[in-house]
């Protein structure tokens, strides 16, 4: 290979590389769904699809797994509305609570809130099974972004949070439990997504 030919190859390579690199990084969005990439004289279209939720298929489950999943579905459907209502109420309580200037006003308000919540949810909570309570604690974390322990601590103080955590432990609960939609609570998350989509 002659020296002139090598220089020509080097020159062409240095001219082509920037064009290819630029083409690979300069896509143009069309309608938010497509991305067209032009490399030299070639054009390729890229489509961005919405995520597809895949849920467990009951037809593929063994009898024992189906029974457990159906029971979990029943429990989640029972407590999920309570967790949603609690999240809405908590946001409102937080808004009002932060407007008070004195600790006395805050304590008086919290007592009023406690009475209101007991009158509204006492019957349901008394009839709730331990396993349903455990799911509710997880869902409160999912809906509010705070564990039950943190919520109690914020409104009632550290001693009350510690006290109720101790009581909860006696019944097999953990008020510090956090919601894990990817691993530990993935089946609950599947059920909630189906509820929100109106599939169940």
Fill in the keyword field for this structure.
200 residues, mainly alpha, 2 domains, three-stranded antiparallel sheet, 7 helices, 3 strands, 66% helix, globular
Q: Structural class, please?
A: mainly alpha
Report the sheet with the most strands, covering strand number, pairing sense and barrel closure. 3 strands, antiparallel
Number of helices, where a helix is a run of at least 4 consecutive DSSP H or I residues: 7
Order of helices and strands: HEEEHHHHHH
Estimate the global geometry from the Cα principal axes: globular
Q: Considering DSSP H and I runs of 4 or more, what fraction of the residues is helical? A: 55-70%
Strand order, largest beta sheet: 1-2-3
Count of individual domains: 2
Tell me the number of strands.
3
Low-confidence stretches: 10-32
Binned strand content: 5-15%
Rounded to the nearest angstrom, the radius of gyration is: 28 Å
How widely separated are the two ends?
A: 73 Å
On the 0-100 scale, what is the average pLDDT? 78
């Amino acid at each position: 290979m002659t020296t002139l030919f090598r220089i020509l190859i080097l020159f062409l390579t240095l001219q082509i590389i920037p064009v290819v690199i630029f083409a690979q990084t300069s896509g143009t969005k069309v309608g938010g769904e497509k991305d067209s990439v032009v490399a030299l004289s070639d054009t390729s279209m890229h489509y961005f699809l919405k995520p597809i939720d895949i849920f467990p298929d009951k037809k593929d489950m063994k009898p024992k797994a189906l029974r457990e999943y159906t029971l979990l579905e029943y429990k989640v459907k029972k407590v999920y509305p309570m967790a949603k209502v609690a999240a809405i109420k908590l946001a409102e309580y937080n808004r009002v609570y932060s407007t008070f200037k004195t600790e006395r006003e805050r304590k008086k308000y919290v007592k009023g809130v406690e009475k209101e919540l007991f009158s509204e949810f006492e019957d349901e909570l008394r009839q709730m099974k331990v396993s349903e309570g455990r799911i509710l604690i997880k869902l409160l974390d999912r809906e509010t972004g705070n564990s039950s322990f943190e919520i109690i601590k914020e409104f009632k103080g550290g001693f009350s949070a510690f006290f109720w955590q101790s009581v909860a432990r006696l019944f097999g609960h953990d008020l510090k439990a956090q919601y894990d939609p990817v691993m530990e609570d993935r089946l609950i998350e599947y059920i909630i997504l189906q509820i929100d989509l109106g599939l169940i």
